[in-house]
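Support request, please re-run this one:
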Amino acid sequence: MIDKVDVIQFMKLDVFRIGLIIGSMFFLLRKGVKIGYVMLISSFALILFYGMDISGIMLAAEKAATGRITITLLLSLSLIRVFEMVLREQNILSGMMGIIKTSFRFRKAIMISMPLLIGRLPSLGGAYFSAPMVKEATEGTDMSNKEKAFINCWFRHPWEYILPLYPGIVFLPRRSPA
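Re-run finished. Output below.
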């Protein structure tokens, strides 16, 4: 029979392991290691920490690759990319930005209005729409790509905690064990 003290000890060990991995992820990202490599290194660290064998790794990979949520997200994000490419290639995106630029006088308002608007929409992959709009709105300025990315991310996500149609809130019940 498992003792309550044993369970607490295992939980402490898990928290330590996960904390160590997250801490090393921050460290590696801070050192400039690309995020793909950081995720790969972190995955191997999890495998080592939890002693997974090859069959366990293959089973986890199969479940992750063939899961309904994975396929739904992959399909959704792919279709969003196609939609964004059509808008861009048909110059619809630049036409929209042209109308917005003539409607608003203040460039800063234009820069933040697009991510704010896109962030209100209950869709996955909002960055695919708002990033090109921010890029178009900041054209001719001396803003770095990091500053543009910050504007896009910061002003797209204030709704995250209050908007009931935000994708994270919509998908949460599907992941809950109830």
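The mean pLDDT is 83. Residues 4-66 form one domain.
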